[in-house]
Amino acid sequence: MTGFVVAVCAAFGLVIGSFLNVVIWRVPRGESVVRPPSACPGCGAPVRPRDNVPVLSWILLRGRCRDCGEPISARYPVVEALTGLLFAATAWFFGPSWDLPAHLYLVAIGVALAYIDIDVHRLPDAITLPSYPVVLALLAVAAAGTGDWSSYLRAVVCGALLWAFYLLLVLVYPRGMGLGDVKLAGVLGMYLGWAGWGAFAVGTFGAFLVGGVFSLGLLATRRAGRKTGIPFGPWMLIGAALGIVVGEPLWRGYLDLTLGA
Predict the structure, then answer these.
(1) Which candidate in 70, 113, 134, 162 could, as Cys together with 185 as Cys, close a disulfide (CB 3.0–4.6 Å)?
(2) For the chain, domain boundaries
(3) What gap in Å lies between CA 94 and CA 102, rounded to an integer?
């Protein structure tokens, strides 16, 4: 059963990845993700349905527009393949569970937000703000299906806590991060809270750890200076992923080591 779910989610992820390419390009520019249909940026020719098959079409077209031969960025199949792989990994980790849809949604917005933040150093409200009611609804369905309303309450509390923590950081040091990070923090806090208090602690700390290590690496290799702006959204997402996947066992191990619990 799990194998079937993984396969279905992988295929679904490829399709979602194709849509995310549209989101990544259009949302920062304030454009509709529905209209007009996708077209070649070089000649304006609409993309044919047969040329819109995730990954495969790009390979068959050798990375060029069928009409004008304009190169098509390799990012398109990369985003599609990455989303498919992450959907498959998420389905494998959670299995056919009530909270699987919620975590697939996190993967989808995570891919889009990470790429957008790298491109334009922004986390658009058009993605983060609607995610609050969506995540609350999806986790409510999971809580109703499992009867675990305590985890749902913890998710709401942790979402508020992480939102407040990031807001405090912005108020204390405005140049360190932006309000987009604050809005994303509330969403990630709900997922971490759903996973547990240990996941919340590890996910919160993990974002600053991996982000700090990456920044030090850039400084050491002189690819960035002290005043270089480095998007923090991707590290928040990676930290949250670490918290969800390994946060609880890591936190228990830490408590056993320090407190002998």
Answers:
(1) 162
(2) 1-96, 121-261
(3) 11
